[in-house]
Structures are given as C-alpha cells and as structure tokens.
Amino acid sequence: MQIDFHYYATYCAAFLAGYSHEECMDICYSAQFVDLCTETFLSRLGAPLSAATTQLQLELADASSDIISLQNITRIWSSFHFLPGDLYAKKKGCSKRYLNKYRLICNPNGELLVNTVKRAKNNSLQAVGITMHVLADTWAHRYFAGTPSLVINNTDRYFFELIPDGDRCFERRITFKPNPSMTDNLNESIYVNSLYQNKESSIMNLGHGRAGHLPDYSFIRYKYLPAWGDYDEIIKDNPSDYLHAFTQMIEAMKYLRGEREDFVADTYDFDAIAPYREKIEAIIKKRQLDSSRDWKAFGEKLSGCSIEFFNVNKYLKEYNMATPKEIDDTFIGRFIIAALGQKSMVTNAIYKSGNRLAGFSVDYAQKGFKGIADYRKLLDQLRRADDDSLSKN
Prior knowledge:
By secondary structure, the protein is of the alpha+beta class. The protein has helices at residues 3-16, 21-33, 39-45, 57-62, 67-80, 96-102, 111-119, 125-140, 150-153, 238-257, 270-273, 277-285, 292-303, 316-321, 331-352, 364-367, 376-392, and strands spanning 159-165, 168-173, 175-177, 190-192, 221-224, 234-237. It contains 17 helices and six strands. The strands form two sheets. It has a four-stranded antiparallel β-sheet. The longest helix is centred in the last third of the chain and has 22 residues, at 331-352. The termini are far apart.
C-alpha cells in the first residue's frame, strides 16, 4: 500500500473507530512512518538501527546475499509488510528449505495478525499506527513473501488485468518493464517491476517487486499463475481486499480503544461504514495511481478538521532535543519501542516455528536481554511495565 491508504485512509478508519482528530493524526502518521523508518534515517538520529521498519532501495542494493543480510531483510519485511499467514502451513513434496519460504507467504487473518493487534492493546498510539500498517498490508500484499525468493514471488507472461466494463469485465495482458524512470501506464496496463534475476535469493525477488506496484493499487483486479500455487490460477481482487482491510482496521481499533472486548480474526465493522460505503467504494475503485486527495477530502468531511500533509521530519527536533531520560517518551521514541516489540514478536514466532530465515531469536519478555544492544530499550520498557504493575497491586 501507499501513502493514500496508510496515511489518509488510516485517518478515516481511526476516526470511524472513535479516536479524536489529534489521536487519528498520531495513528496515521505512525502507520505511514513505517514506510520511511530506515536505517539511514535512524542513523541520522543516533537511534537504534534494529528499529528500522523498511529499507531504502540503496540499502537493499548494498546488502549482500550472505545469510546474515538475508535474515535482516526477512526480519524487517516479514514483520511490517508481509506478515506470514500461517507459519505451520503444509505442502507436500517439497524440501524443508522451500517449505520455510512457503510458510512466510503473507495472508490476512493469521495467528500473527491477531497477536499483532492484541500486542498493541494498552500500548502507545504509535503502536496502534504500526499495527494498522501491518494489518492493511496483509490484504494488499497477500500471496507474496517478505523474503527474497524467485519461486515464491516471481511473475511470468500469464498476468492479466481484469478491467470492469459495465456488469462484466475484460482481460488485458499486463506488460511489466524494469524501468524505474518510467511511470505506470494505466491505460495500457504497462507497469514497472524489478529486474528479473534467476538467482533464488536475489533482492530483486523480494516481496511484490516482480509484480511492481500492482498490489498497492486499490482499484486493480488481476490474475496470474504463481509457482507456489502449483501454477493454478489466482485472482487478486484488490477492491474487495481493501474494503475488508478498511473495515477490519475499524474493528481492530475499536478493540484497542476498549469498545470491543476481544479482537477475533475475520471480523469486520461494515456497520461503521454503512452511511459512507458508496463513497468509500468509489474511492477504492477509482483508477488512479494515488488516491490521497480523495481519502483526504473524505477524512476532512468526516471529522471537520484539516488533515495536514505528511512530513517525515515533523518529530526530528523533539527527538534530537530530548535528554536521555526523555527520549523514549518522544514521538519517535515511542515509535521505536513499538517497532522493536513488533519485530521481536514476529521474529520470535518464526524462530519458534523451526524456521531460521529470520535468524535466531529469544522471547525478550521471558528471557531478557541477550546481547543485542538495540533491544535494551524494549527490555527496559518491559521491566518498567512490570514494576508499575507490581506497585499498583
């Protein structure tokens, strides 16, 4: 997904879930910041590099194909953008090496999604925003994996766009071109993608790079023959998936606010959007590269407040001016704590499943600090929470 959904649509979902305008701004900023919090950005602040929630193309280009680099890539992309749907999925007739990658395929409504939402309960608004990013991406990025894999993530010539035409639709073959200077051409279904590399673990085969930005467009429907699916035809219906993502975000945030007693997978608050469903579906289905303007206008009509444009540097001064005692309670400080927690939880779950693609992990909540300095902040926060709980009791 892009800024249109992670920022503006997330604001709308948060407002419909009952958050105030100010809270919605913190949530949607955090959701969008997930796509910008790189090691390069964090290094400018002297902040923990392990809190990175994404990677720049230049960072990926500089990454080697050794096992440590691949594990770092997998930790980031599986934790925040391609949350695995089933870490214990079964598939006959394949090697353990391939099965491990197959089990990292992103899908909505998995156990990790439920754990991600529940982990944000009674946590910061930054944690809520990160959770909404992860939740939304389980719908947009389904069928792709957050680890480099030609077998899992590749595309071929059998890739067709399904374009609505009245009550029916017609098929148009999609043409992919690995030309980063080109803009996607919606009129002719020509889309930019990553360069084909026949090496299984090439960085070009990470996530949906081989499918370009197609998963990020809410309007698109397409079909293709993934190798992981034994070349059976898969139809990806983004308008339906994005509507489910939006209503599931509302459901999740009502739980996080305390309006729902529990968060259960495969639950959606369609009642909350009933008065606006026609408008929301019109935005989602509109053929355009960026729907930010439409989501922004809808959000401002909902709340009666102005939604400021996203500014990645908005909270830099606060973080830079904070004392060591204050820094963890700044906006970026709270985001870092939440990001470390999410990455730790997902990495630990992957490790416990017997899968080593994300590297070695321990449960910090139970085992404590194990030598990774960046995670000391997370451990300190857990200890403070335990101390607060004891003092209240």
